[in-house]
Amino acid sequence: MAEERTVMRTQLPTSAESQNPQLKKALEFPILEKQNWLIHLHYIHKDYEACKAVIKEQLRETQGLCEYALYVQALIFRLEGNIQDSLELFQTCAVLSPQCADNLKQVARSLFLLGKHKAATEVYNEAAKLNQKDWEICHNLGVCYIYLKQFNKARDQLHHALHLNRHDLTYIMLGKIHLLEGNLDKAVEIYKKAVEFSPENTELLTTLGLLYLQAILAAGSMMQTHGDFDVALTKYRIVACAVPESPPLWNNIGMCFFGKKKYVAAISCLKRANYLAPFDWKILYNLGLVHLTMQQYASAFHFLSAAINFQPKMAELYMLLAVALTNLEDTENAKRVYAEAVHLDKCNPLVNLNYAVLLYNQGQKRDALAQYQEMEKKVNLLKESSSLEFDSEMVEVAQKLGAALHVGEALVWTKPAKDPKSQHRTTSASKAACFQQPLGSNQALGQAMSSAAAYRKLPSERGEGREKEERNINV
Fold first, then answer.
1. Are 435 and 353 in contact (CB under 8 A)?
2. Nearest to residue 138, comparing CAs of 155, 118, 115, 117?
3. In this structure, are residues 413 and 401 in contact, taking their beta carbons and an 8 Å threshold?
4. Do 328 and 321 form a contact (C-beta atoms < 8 A)?
5. Band (216; pLDDT cuts 50, 70, 90)
6. Over the range 129-166, which residues count as b (16 or more CB within 10 Å of their CB) and which as e?
7. Cα dihedral sign for 425, 426, 429, 430?
8. Is the pTM of this model over 0.70?
9. Which pLDDT score is estimated for 468?
10. Is the pLDDT of residue 274 over 70?
11. What dihedral do alpha carbons 400, 401, 407, 411 form, nearest 10°?
12. What is the mean pLDDT of residues 279-303?
């Protein structure tokens, strides 16, 4: 028995020594993540208040060192709109685990949502060094570069994202880059590939269909610009069958009829376009122009005033409004509007010419001469920068005014070619006879606006290319 007890005494400590290190190790191990499962459960069930309570307790116990709790807290802040707070927490996560690409991705995402696109690209690039095969990093980098207008880099990143893993959203963003660059054919090609990859995506199918219609509309607009109105109308009929409620379509159809001198039909189509898009200033501009051509000056005044409310920095609108006021025998207001047009315009000699004619007919020859000289300066600048031809009607009126002001008939302009299509592309104006003053005034009114694909922006108010704006402004 003694021997047995001795054995027992010698065995029991040995057993305790073999178990105690494990027990001691289990007790001393820091349990920083013990409630992560509960945090995750509340988060996926969208029980954010309970989730935040558990996170608060977990951070208190771990003295703010639980990475997962901080990560989920940052996600909740972002969902609640506290982007700056979420950014700070994600940055803390990145400090706790600097080799984790997901933390850097979330930091970059918060920077992107704050509009700090350049900083976001820098963080995404750091994340890409940690994980070079993450398509999401490449995709988001491409989106950031789009906002920075660095389209070449954006294309490279999006193509790399598609190489790693194809996604509908990447195709969509790549197509948008081509649309922003005005490359409709490339955009169609990208969306065709996207539809082949995801044929059930209704957004892709709809976008591709609209791009096809937009291409037809652009082709019709091009033909309309060159005076091929019948061919353009044929193209527009195709679009009308598919998209009968398109404001740019009816605007362009109306201006085709205007080019064919079918003014009643033009007004009917333009009013339909105005009904569909009441805040589109280009449609209002065209309505004012057509009414001026038909010598319906009160209606022209109405539409041109409305257009100015939406586009208050366009000198040509003020010029046409002044024409309407002149013919409504409100010369004082016409002078004020002309003065505003001259103030806004930097390159269109037509504004100064019409103003000079009005001043001359009012007996203000000195002011008329000043406007005539400004007109000549603009003509010289245009001749130096391009080989434009000027409308014969403008040249004739300017020569008569020059003779009346005793500055000679040797005008700085040259006579334009007789080709009617060539005349259609010049800085001319429409053939509406709007004045009955001794010299005839305000003959060259302006150009119609036709609707091009992708709603291209007009040149800047400083005047690059302004001389080409006015015959057919296609929305």
1. no
2. 155
3. no
4. no
5. confident
6. ebeeebbbbbbbbbbbbbeeebeeebbebbebbbebee
7. negative
8. no
9. 32
10. yes
11. -60
12. 95
Q: 37-43: long-range contacts (C-beta < 8 A, 24 or more apart)? A: 39/68, 39/69, 39/72, 40/68, 40/72, 43/72, 43/75, 43/76
pLDDT tens-digit map of 3-58: 443 333 334 344 444 444 444 444 444 566 778 888 889 899 999 999 999 998 88
Least confident of 265-279, 392-406, 430-444: 430-444
453-347-295 Cα angle (round to 5): 70
The proportion of the chain whose per-residue pLDDT surpasses 70, expressed as a percent, equals 79
Q: Which amino acid is at 316?
A: E
Q: What's the mean pLDDT when you consider all of the chain?
A: 79
- At a CB cut-off of 8 Å and minimum separation 6, what does 394 contact? 349, 350, 353, 413, 428, 429, 443, 444
Reference 366, options 403, 405, 409; nearest CA is: 405
Two tokens, residue 262: 């079918």
Q: Are 35 and 60 in contact (CB under 8 A)?
A: no
Q: Is 236:253 a contact under the CB 8 Å cutoff? A: yes
CA distances from 227 to 257, 260, 266 (A): 11, 9, 15
Token match 């409630």: residue? 35
- Give the model's confidence band at 157: pLDDT under 50 very low, under 70 low, under 90 confident, else very high: very high
Measure CA of the first residue to CA of the last residue in the chain; give whole Å.
109
Question: Which region, left, alpha or beta, applies to residue 149 given φ > 0 means left and ψ of -120 to 50 means alpha?
Answer: left
Indicate the helix (H) or strand (E) that contains 313.
none
Which residue pairs from 228-237 have beta carbons closer than 8 angstroms and sit at least 24 positions apart in sequence?
Answer: 229/256, 229/257, 229/259, 229/260, 232/256
Nearest CA among 471, 267, 293, 280 for reference residue 388: 471
Give the burial string for 285-310 (b: 16+ CB within 10 Å, else e).
Answer: bbbbbbbbbeebbebbbbbbebbbee
Q: How far is it, in rounded angstroms, from Cα 210 to Cα 323?
A: 39
Per-residue exposure over 13-29, b if at least 16 CB sit within 10 Å of its own CB, e if not: eeeeeeeeeeeeeeeee
Q: Which residues contact 16 (CB under 8 A, 6 or more apart)?
A: none
Q: Which of 259-268, 299-308, 450-459 has the lowest mean pLDDT?
A: 450-459
- The continuous run of DSSP H or E covering 474 comes out as strand 472-474
